[in-house]
Each structure stands twice: as structure tokens, then as C-alpha cells.
Amino acid sequence: MIFWIVKGLATGMGETTSDVLVHTIDPPVAVVIGLAGFVAVLTLRLRAARYNAWICRFAVVMVSVLGTMAGDVAHGGLGIPCAVSTPFFGAALAVIFPIWVRVAGTLPIHSIHSRRREAFYWATVLATFALGTTTGDMTVQSMQLGYRDSGILFAALIAAPALARWRFGPVEIWLAGDLACRRFGLPEIPAFWVAYIVTRPFAASVADRMGVDHQRGGLDWGTGPVSLALCVVILGFVACLAANRSDVEHEPAGVRDRDRADIPRFE
User: How many Cβ atoms are within 10 Å of 128's Cβ, its own excluded?
Assistant: First the structure.
């Protein structure tokens, strides 16, 4: 549960922080800064001998900022319609997933025990953030739903996979070489990634509504103050995680393809 809370907060912060950077400095420079920050923290994460809550959550924030910028640049900077960019990023995910399975030999989230598998995970996460950005822009701008109604729509879409997995009984199946748990109606892995993608436009819609002015349908709290407030809350959650290590599960005995002693819990 804490994983999803921090992910949602980081997503909202990434949206408002991206807006602050793009409107404060030259957009291409802002993109370069976001890319440099993401590469730096991801390199630090992949080189870490053990899982570190601070590094991992900072990486989530940076991928949120960069993913938001990627979607915004495609739509606002290059003038690509959301109806085009959204299927493009969806197609990117459709390419990444089978390559992940073929190269790494597995796909379940709980099997990320090596740097190679984690590299595929972060590539997928970046694509989901870009896809979520363009999807949110499409509902807010192209479909003219506004931030409030878009937030309601995506909240309902997030609840759908959760209800699908809660409603039906468990069945164990072999998936991509690993024993995974699936429930009738919606398997675990699709449920995770559907929720992961939709969390982005939902949290961004909420954060945008708090930050933008009244003329755009917001509460006019300011994107800068909203970013700062979300940052403080995230720091509080991460401090708790770093202290009690409740977001860490030890690797199972017999795992050969591993290069760190602990892995994050994706739940």
C-alpha cells in the first residue's frame, strides 16, 4: 500500500515540478536537466550493492519528472496530437514487455533480482509515465473533461483492476517461466501495470487541479507550493520506510541471478 501512496505522491510532484521547470527556464534546457537528473540517480540506483529506499524513491520522482516532460514535449513542443502520441507510447510498452521476457527470462514484478531485470523495469516505468502524461492531456484538453472529471475517471479505472483481482479466487499458473499468482478475470501482472499507468494521469490531474489557476479549473494554490508540499510528505514516508524497512523483502533462497541482497516490495 505504501508503494502506491508514494508512487502517487511522486507522480503528482513530478507533474507540478515539470511545470515549474518548463515555465521558469527554457523548455529544452529543462528537459536536459530532467534527463541528466534521471540518468544520475538511475546510475546510482543500479550501482548500489543493496536496496536503498531514498535512492529508489528519488529515482521514481526523477522518472516522473522526465516522463512528464517527454509527454509534454511530444504534445506541446512538437505539436504531436495526443491521439497520436498516446498510441505511440502504448506501442513502446508493447515492444518493451516481450523483449523484457525474452532477454531477462521473466516478467513478474517480484522477480526483479538483478540489474539487468531492473534496467527493463525502469525503461518500462519511463514509458508508462510518458503514456500516462499523454493520456491525461488527452482527457483534460482534447476531450475537455477538465482536471476534476479526469481525476474521477482515472480513479474509477484504478479501482477496476483492484476489484477484478479481489472479486475472484486465486489460481496459480506458470507465467514467463516463474510461478505467479493470478485471479480469474485479470492476471496479477496486467493488473499491476494497468494500475501503474493509470495512477499517473490520476495523480497528475489531482496535483494540477491544486496548482493551476481558477480560469483553468484549478484551486490556484500554485505549482511551486504544491511541489514543495508533496516533497515534504514524500520525505516523511521515505524516512519511515528507511527506518523500518517495511518495503524490503529478502531474496528467496536459491536465486542465482542476483547481485544485491535486498529488493523492493512492489505492493
Answer: 24
